[in-house]
Each structure stands twice: as C-alpha cells, then as structure tokens.
Amino acid sequence: MSVSSVVLLELKAIDLSFGSSQVLKQLSLEVREGEIYSLIGPNGAGKSSVINIINGIYQPQSGQIIFAGQVLHNYKAKHAPYLGIARTFQNLALFKQMSVLDNVLTGRVLKSRHSLLGALLSLPSTQKNDDLQRFKAEEILKLLNLQEYRDQLVSSLSYGLQKRVELARALAAEPQFLLLDEPMAGMNHAEKRSIAKFIQKINQQLNITIFMIEHDLAVVMDISDHIVVLDYGKKIAEGTPQQIQEHPEVLSAYLGIQAL
Ligand SMILES: Nc1ncnc2c1ncn2[C@@H]1O[C@H](COP(=O)(O)OP(=O)(O)OP(=O)(O)O)[C@@H](O)[C@H]1O
Predict the structure, then answer these.
(1) Ligand 1: distance of its center to the CA of 55 in Å?
(2) Which of 18, 182, 228, 229 to probe ligand 1 with, by most ligand atoms within 8 A of CB?
(3) Which of 39, 109, 255, 256 is deepest in the core (most CB within 10 A)?
C-alpha cells in the first residue's frame, strides 16, 4: 500500500501513569494511512502501553486520541472493532482446542448478521450468512497460506504457525488499522522472515495500516516506512529506517548496538 499524506491515527500529548509511576510522558505521534509504522525501544519503555491506549484498554490521564479525524472520548476496548482497529497480543490469545478455521471465524463475529432466532429456525438467510462468513475466512486462510491447516487444532501447530493464525483471526474483522504486539517474538529466523512477508502482503494487498512493536531490529528496519523510538515513555527519535540507523543516540545510548 502506498503511504498517503492522510493521518489515520494521532496521539496528542498523552500522559499515562500507574500510581506514582509515569509510563508515558507527553507522547505525540502521527500514523499515516498505508504505513507500516514501528515503535521500538528498550524493555519497559512504554511500547505495549501505547498499543493498549490505541486499543482502548488503557485510558490516559491526559491527551487526545484522534482516529480517522474523530477525537475519541471515553474510548474503551469494546469500541475499537467498530472503528476498524484490530490487534494481536504479545502472548498468543487463541482457542487452542478449536480448529484453525473456527478460530478465524471467531474473528468475524462483528461482520456476521447472524441472529439466534434465525439459527434456531434454520432460516435460509442464516445459512447464507454462514456460507459468507466461511468464504471470507477461507480467503484469509489462503492469503496467509494456512489452508492446509484449516481443520487442525491450533494446539497441534508449531508456535510460528499459531502466531500466523492469530494474525488471520485479527484480519477476519476486516480492520483498517492493525496493531501487532511483537509479532515475531519467540520465532526462529525462517519464521520471522515469513511473518515479515505476510505483514507486507497484508499492508499492500488489503490496504491495512500497520502499527507494530517488535524487538527484532533487522526486520523492523527491513519492512517499516516509519519508526519511532521510545525511551522511558518519551519519544527520542523518529524517521525512516535509514534515519534511525544513523541516529547515534538511538544506537549507542538506547539500543546498545553499534551498527545494523
Ligand atoms: N497495568 C499496569 N499496571 C502497572 N504498571 C504497568 C501496567 N502496564 C504497564 N505498566 C508499567 O509501565 C511500564 C512500561 O511497560 P510497557 O509494557 O508498556 O513497556 P514495553 O516497552 O512494552 O516493554 P517490553 O518491551 O518489555 O514489553 C513498565 O514499567 C510497566 O511495569
């Protein structure tokens, strides 16, 4: 997807505290439509807290969240799917004793016009709706090369495949903005490369803006359009991968690496 000049998400002067500990300090950021936008920084910098704010799980003490031109007031996690915001979690959150297809179908709840009465009466419209949901879920499985696992229990799959199923389930909601919390955590090199390709495919083919936290800097540098570096809840740098790689403060003081 080409990056547009339209800002899809804006955080303005966000402050977040838990008790006496201030986690985010006057944090502002802008994510443009079509971007793969990555947030990096040391452990405890506040990255997951940012995702939890964008997803409505945490409510900041002050600041504004503006999504698609709308200031969000009293914003909670239950509102996110209606805005077209979906997410994956740092630790897998799947129904492990259900099949891959059924897990993806759970992601279609909002898109389904299924009524309980219709189901009880086996109305033709209910059957049509089920067929549509299944068709959409199958399309996503195809996109992520998961068809061959469709009927397998999630618990029987490798960790890398389970992460891909989680991605599929998030996509089932047809989001316009996808939050990925460490999508490559715990993966081997080949699995990381493969998930990176799928993230690019989702961005380009489905026109979904991606907001990602990831510790693997090589992958972040490889696929991101824009990177923000957070430390102690403050933005210390932002720019293209090249600008970030050349930022001496980021490299030496905060990420503790010499060169990428
Ligand atoms: N619900 C909470 N209650 C209390 N403190 C919290 C809560 N959520 C986050 N914190 C604190 O906020 C700080 C930032 O945590 P956060 O998980 O956002 O950092 P992070 O950059 O995502 O770290 P990591 O890379 O290790 O996942 C930490 O000190 C953490 O303990």
Answers:
(1) 15
(2) 18
(3) 39
Q: Which two tokens stand for residue 16?
A: 């977040």
Residues 6+ apart with CB under 8 A from 55: 77, 80, 85, 87, 179
Confidence of residue 229 (pLDDT cuts 50, 70, 90): very high
Nearest by Cα to 218 from 181, 244, 186: 244
Angle between helices 189-205 and 124-143 (to 10 degrees): 120
Residue 157's nearest CA partner among 226, 214, 101 is 101
Q: Is the CB of 23 under 6 A from ligand 1?
A: yes
Closest CA to 140 of 130, 150, 131: 150
Closest C-alpha among 3, 84, 94, 87 to residue 50: 87
Q: How confident is the model at residue 259 (pLDDT cuts 50, 70, 90)?
A: very low
In the three-class reduction of DSSP (H, G, I as helix; E, B as strand; rest coil), residue 87 is classed as strand
CB 142 within 8 A of CB 162: no
49: left (phi over 0), alpha (psi -120 to 50) or beta: alpha
Residue, of 92 and 1, whose pLDDT is higher: 92
Summarize pLDDT for 54-72 with one digit per residue, the tens: 999 999 999 999 999 999 9
Residue, of 82 and 90, whose pLDDT is higher: 82
All domains in the chain, ordered by first residue: 1-84+175-260 (3.40.50.300), 100-174 (no CATH)
